Amino acid sequence: MIENIRLSFQGIWAHKLRSLLTMLGIIIGIAAIIAIVSTIKGTAEQIKENLVGSGNNVVEIKLKQGDWDYASGDYGSSGVKVINDKVKEDILAVEEVTAVASYRYGSMYNGVTYESNAVNGITVIGADRDYMQLAGYTVTRGRMFVDRDYDEYKKFVVLDDAAASSITGGENPVGKTIEIKGDPYVIIGVVKQLDSFAPKINSLQDWQTYYGDSAAGRLFLPDTNWPMVYGFDEPYNVIIKPRSTDDITEAGKKSADILNEYIGAKSETPSGEGGDSEEANFKYKSQDLLEKAKQMQQVSQSTSQQLIWIASISLLVGGIGVMNIMLVSVTERTREIGLKKALGARKGVILGQFLTEAAVLTSLGGLIGVAGGIGLAYLISNVAAVPVAISGAAIAVSVAFSTIIGVVFGLIPSVKAANLNPIDALRYE
Q1: What per-residue string of b and e applies to 334-372 under the rule 16 or more CB within 10 Å gives b?
Q2: DSSP secondary structure, 97-164, as one string
Q3: What is the pLDDT of residues 124-157, one digit of tens each?
Q4: C-alpha R_g of the chain
Q5: pLDDT tens, 224-233?
Q6: Cβ(398)–Cβ(366) under 8 Å?
Q7: Whole-number Å distance between alpha carbons of 361 and 358
Q8: Range list of β-strands (E), 183-341
């Protein structure tokens, strides 16, 4: 085998240009496949990182009213039971959950004013004692809420960067007073979410997907103060931290089941001045980020798989080129084959020599194609700002596949060489 490989390299080197042209189809096909697979993998990882985050993997479990997220407003009480500590303990007992926090959610239109200027579209979050840390917020100015703020019903608020800009412009908001529905609240801090969740924004659609619901920013207040703002003890949403990224779906589903069992499958809400009630179909539903990521990845992969099939045509063309050149090689070396057979070489030896030469030729093309594919992938990444993740498995499969192509398409010429009659071969001119 080693001798056959040595002879193969000698033959390739003796006909360098011919060998390069023969390998060209293999090189182009392998390079295209490596580049496409690397781009698919990079895009898939970006989608997962954008939706799930890295290091701040939390799952939101939101209260739904029919098909819509429930948001507090001036509509009266929803009638849904408020989550208590016992329910949180039940969720925390779930094997896949390591932490849990609750929050209330609402939007404020013309309800927030600063120096008589109304701010529209602020998202209001009523955070429990664990929410800010679990949701990944860190302080950039001032301070966060402390237990005393909750126990003494302090009229304090914390803003994110967007809300601080919306409310006070470029001023430092800490220590300033705003009014929420006419009541004064003191801004005690400004926060931002951890950098571990930093979605890449390449289009307006991406911006709307990740940031569209909080364009005017978020205002946080202790959940104990929520009834002072909305007048009702509104229901909570929940966030949980799964044990690992792979546990996100299961942790979210089990936690949502606990919440739905607690509030009942359906609840009733007052309707109209007469106090009649109608079914509201309230239900908790977890945000299945992994499923969402998979759906987006599948859209990307379905298109890319078609490109892989197209690139595979180059491999087929390359294989035909290998078969053609090996047939030419057999014709050129007919007298050499006849001489080896006359000296006692068996069919298996001749067959192995030509199969090895074909496999070495395509394997070398595969290796060059892999190098070219990696370079092409990074070139695409730099030019088109597309993420790339090189797949070791794709490289190994590509090299193995190129070797198989050499064996398959080199088989017919090798069999022809092995079956030559030594007397006819020696007479060949």
Answers
A1: beebbebbeeebeeeebbbbbbbbbbbbbbbbbbbbbeb
A2: EEEEEEEEEEEESS-EEETTEEE-SEEEEEE-TTHHHHTTEEEEEE----HHHHHTT--EEEEEHHHH
A3: 999 999 999 998 899 999 999 999 999 999 999 9
A4: 34
A5: 999 888 877 7
A6: yes
A7: 5
A8: 183-193, 218-222, 237-242, 268-271, 276-279, 282-286
Tokens 């705003």 belong to residue: 178
**Residue carrying the six token digits 């004064």:** 184
Closest CA to 248 of 298, 210, 287, 284: 287
Distance of CA 295 to the CA centre of its chain: 10
Indicate the burial class of 71 (C-beta count within 10 angstroms; 0-12, 13-18, 19 or more): middle
Whether 109 contacts 181, CB under 8 Å: no
Q: Is 144 left (phi over 0), alpha (psi -120 to 50) or beta?
A: beta
- Angstrom distance (rounded) from CA 212 to CA 107: 13
Q: In sequence order, which residues have a C-beta less than 8 Å from that of residue 429 and are 6 or more positions away?
A: none
pLDDT at 90: 94
Tokens found for residue 83: 């989550």
What is the residue type of 406? G
Task: Return the SS3 of 396.
Answer: helix
**Tokens linked to 255:** 């936690």
**For 325-384, what is each residue's pLDDT tens digit?**
777 777 777 777 777 777 777 777 777 777 788 888 888 888 888 898 888 888 887 887
For 88, counting Cβ atoms within 10 Å of its Cβ (0-12 exposed, 13-18 middle, 19+ buried), the class is buried
Residue 344, amino acid: G
Determine the Cα–Cα distance for residues 82 and 261; give it in Å rounded to an integer.
13
